[in-house]
Amino acid sequence: MWLEKKHIYTDFWCWQTPSQSRVPIDVNAHECEKMRDSRLCHGKNMDYLGNNKWSFERIPNVQGSWLQVTADQLINCRLEEVTLETECANCTISSPIGDIPGGINGSVSHNLVTIVWKASLREVQQCKLRLVETGIAQRYLTYNSEIERIRGVEQQQFDFGYNTTNKKYCNSSEKSYKQVIGMDKVILRLHSLTDTNAHPSKPLEEDIENIADIIRAEISGVAHSQYARDRTTDGINEVAPEIRALQCENRVLAHKTAIATAQHSGWLVASYLNLPTCSKLIATGESISVYQCSPKNSKITTEITSCGPQPKLGDYTLDTEGWELTPYTPCYWQKNFVNFNGRAHFYKNSSWHPVVPGVIIQGDSLIDTLLYEIDKLLALSLHPALTPHPMSTAASIAEIIADAKEEHSIDLGNSFHIKFKFSNYHIEADIKRVNNMECKACGTDPLACHCDANMKCYRLESANDHGSIPLFEGIAIARDEEVNEFIADVNSEIPILKGHGTCGSSTFKAGKTDSTYYKGLDETGIVSLCCRHGVMLKVSNMYQGETYRLIAFFHSFALKLGILFFCYDGICRYWKFGVLLRLGQSKMDY
Predict the structure, then answer these.
(1) Rounded to two decimals, what is the model's pTM?
(2) What is the average pLDDT value for the chain, to the nearest integer?
(3) Domain limits of the chain?
(4) How far apart are CA 586 and CA 552, in angstroms?
C-alpha cells in the first residue's frame, strides 16, 4: 500500500509542471486480512489482474490553476495470493520475499510488505522423495575414502560433495542414495555409465514433481557455488606442480650462479644470497666456503689526485669490492666512482654521496592470460524465485525511482531550485550555445511581433526580498537601468503630460502617454514582447501604468531585430507617439 501524490504548478505563461511522488504506507495484519477478504483498497474495488493478483493503482486527477500549485493524493494497493512452503511445523517458511522464521505464526511484516496466512489451511505431507534434476556428471575421488564429489558436464556448472555410504530415505524401498554434504535434505542417486549405456534420465522423468521455485533455485545456487570453488581449487592444484618445478630449477640455478659469481667476487654473491653483513664466499670447484668477518667502522679521508678523488685510510684504500682494504696508489680509482660497502658513491662538496638509480629495467610478462568463461549463475539470478517480488520493497523502490526519472518531485518555490535552474541556463547558454530566447520557427529574423502589458502581475512593497537583484535580469527580463535610461532619453525630447489617452469618444486607461505610481505597489505589472508563435523576445517590469514611453522601448527593440510588423492593442494612439519620435523632434530614429 502506498500514497500516490501529484502536484501541478502553473506558471505565468500557463505552462504546467507536474510532479509525482509515492509514500509507502505500513499495513498491519488486520488491515491486510480485511483487504484479502473484501478485495477493497480503502473502500474502492480492486482490479483482478489474473494469477491470483489484485490491485488498485490510480493517479490523482489534478487540475492546474494559474500561478498556483494544486495537489491531490490517492491510496493505492496491491494484493496477491501466494503459496508458502515449510519442511516442518517449526522450520523456516519459504516466501516470495524471503525466509520467514518458523516460530512466527499467522502474519509477518518486512520492508513494508505484510504477509498473512491461516494455520488451519496448512496441508501436511509425509516425507517423500522428489526428483529435482537429472544430468550427466563426472565422478572424482578425494583424499578421504568416505567422501567423493561429482561435477556436471555438457556446460552444466554444478558440483556436489557427497558421502559414499548408501542409505534409505523416506518412502524409498532401495538403499541406494547418498547424502550431499552441507545440504541435509538433498540426496543423490548415481548410475554408472559406459559408452553403450543409455542415459537413465528419460525413465526418471516420469517421477519428476514440481517443487517450489525458491527451493530449486537454492539448490542450484549452492551447487554452482561449490562448482566455482572446486574449479578454483583445481586451478590452484594444477599450478602447484609447475610452481614446485620452478622452485627446484631456481634453487639449482641459484647454486650454479653463486659458484660462478664467487669466482669473480665473493662479496657480491654473498649480498645476492642475502647472507649476513661482512660475509664472503670463496669457491673451490663446485664447493663454496663462507667467511664471516667482523665489521669495523673506520673514518675514511679523501685525497685529490690527478685521477680524481681517492678514499684513503692510512696507507690503504678501499678495493673494488668495497669491503676490504688494499695498498694505496694515487690512481687506484679512475672513474670518479668509489664502491663503499657494495654501493657506488660520487664525490661532491667535500663529501661522498650514494648514487641513486634512475633507470628501471622492465621485465617481460611470461604468463599468458586465461580465457573467460560465462558464469551460468547470471541466468540463475534471473530465476523467478530470486527476482524481486512485485510486493517487495525493492520492486516498489525501483518503480518509484523509474517514475522519478520521468517526473521528479521538486519544490518549485525553493530558492535552491531557482538557483539550480539559473545554473542550468548558463550551462546551456555559455557552454552548449543554446539560445532559449529565440523562436525555433522564426529564427533570428522574426517577421512580426506583439506587445502587451499584464497588470495582474503586481508586486507589493511589503513583499519578501523587496529590492533584491533578480537572477534572470538582463536575460529574459530587461534590466531596470536599461529601461529607465531609454525612457529618460524620451523624456528629454517629449514633455511628460497628464491625462488619459483618447480615441474618439473612448478613453484608454491602459494605453496613454504618461502615468503615475500606484500607492503600496513596488511593481504594477510586466510588459512583454513575443513573436507570432508565442515565444517571449523581451520582458520588462512595469513600475507605473502602461505608457507609450515603455511601449517605445519594445518598439525600439523590435526594430533592432528587423521585425516588419509591430502589433499592439492601442496602436492607433501609440502610432502618433511613435511618429512623433521619428519626425525629427527627437534625435532618436524609430
Answers:
(1) 0.34
(2) 77
(3) 2-126+390-406, 137-233, 266-354, 436-582
(4) 13
